[in-house]
Amino acid sequence: MNVAIGRSNRNCCGPCWVTHLIPVLLSLTMLSIGCSSSTDGAHRAEAIPASQPASSQANPNSLAGPPAGAQLAPTINAARAMGYLKEIVAFGPRPIGTKNHERLEEYILAHLKGDEVEDDRFVADTPAGKLPVRNIIAKYPGTKDGVIVIAGHYDTNYPLRDTGYVGANDGGSSAAILLEFANQLRGKKRDGYSVWLVFADGEEAVKSWTDTDSVYGMRHLAARWQKDQTLKKIKALLLADMIGDQDLNILRDQNSTPWLEDLVYQAATKLGYQSHFFEQTAPMEDDHIPFVKLGIPSADLIDFEYGYGNVFWHTPQDTVDKLSPKSLQIVGDVILQTVWFLDAR
Ligand SMILES: [Zn+2]
After folding, report:
1. Separation of CA 66 and ligand 1 centre (Å)
2. What is the Å distance from ligand 1's center to 157 Cα?
């Protein structure tokens, strides 16, 4: 993931400025922050407007409350999700084009056995040459016409592939939560929209983050679904990224769709988890962007304050000991509750 920086839309090889931003965000209205990263050196952020809590934003949806007649969603088994996460991390670094990545593909498919699965494989042109990319899509039918997509990436950082980096939070947490969602969704037909789980591949930049060196899988999928008209069926996209941090602060992404983020906040409030949501606001570049560009309502749920100053992000310190099953519980339950709210809209 990444952030769009001010008007210039420059990147920081990830939204690294926002982590510097957070400690002072509440006291400043405009600021300029420098940052550096492990993969493409230092950049400079331009003036960024300070955050506003969701409740203060003038959007009628935030005042409307949950849709009438909405049902309570099931809650996930967070211990089981954490078990998946640990098994995924045990494969080691999992960037595209590696044996470990292939092992994880097989692991995911083995856990989706018996489900309807679409395999979306292609070869991407990257700064490191042609590399295989594979989105895995598990489909769970509903009674209502339309599809809600829940997505998260399973690849890990490419430039750090030889550093011992395992991406427990960045890549591991999103893959694990999707596997647990599959457990909650399989079985009898949903009384609501169909839900498709997209295990997105190639989210990470191969060299450094640009529009063409990032989100390889989701760019490919959005273009394909536009071409074959599948996009018309999609009512909403919920994206999970870096959701395992034991100090959980999901930010409000300015590139996401306001009414859908409001609905997420209502779901969080319904479950008593709202203190973990939307204290900070920032524009994120992540797997949702290709769908946002094509007009699909999208919400990126990401915690981009991973350790003080985001020190664990894209470093070999992104390990399981920084994470908590409680955080998986919170984000997992809020995502499912948002789906159940969408059913009733
Ligand atoms: Zn990353």
Report:
1. 33
2. 6
Distance 122 CA to ligand 1 centre (A): 21
Ligand 1 centre distance from Cα of residue 2 (Å): 8
Task: Label residues 254-274 b or e (16+ Cβ within 10 Å = b).
Answer: bbbbbbbbbbbbbbbbbbebb
Distance 117 CA to ligand 1 centre (A): 25
Please give the pLDDT value at position 64.
Answer: 63
Average pLDDT over residues 21-29: 39
Asked if 32 and 6 count as a contact pair (C-beta separation under 8 A), the reply is no
Contact 76, 329 (CB under 8 A): yes
C-alpha 230 – ligand 1 centre gap (Å): 28
Q: In a 3-state reduction of DSSP, which class is residue 73? A: coil
Which of 52, 54, 40 has the alpha carbon at shortest distance from 10? 40
pTM of the model: 0.86
Cα 153 to middle of ligand 1, angstroms: 9
Q: Kindly give the distance from the C-alpha atom of residue 72 to the centroid of ligand 1, in angstroms, as a whole number.
A: 32
The per-type count for the chain, helices as H runs and strands as E runs, is: 9, 14
* pLDDT for the residue 2: 72
H or E stretch at 179: helix 173-185
Residue 341: C-alpha distances to residues 24, 241, 256 (Å): 34, 21, 18
For residue 344, the CA-to-ligand 1 centroid distance in Å is 34
158 alpha carbon – ligand 1 mean position (Å): 9
- Give residue 201's region: left, alpha or beta (phi > 0; psi -120 to 50): beta
- Please tell me the distance from the alpha carbon of residue 76 to that of residue 92, in angstroms, as a whole number: 26
Cα of 244 vs centre of ligand 1, distance in Å, is 13
- Amino acid identity of residue 52, one-letter, is Q
pLDDT digits (tens, 9 = 90+) for 287-307: 999 999 999 999 999 999 999
Q: Is 224 exposed, middle or buried (0-12, 13-18, 19+ CB in 10 A)?
A: middle
Rounded CA separation 122/169 (Å): 26
User: Quick one: average pLDDT of 300-328?
Assistant: 97
What is the distance, to the nearest Å, from the Cα of residue 324 to the centroid of all Cα atoms in its chain?
A: 17
Residue 11 pLDDT: 36
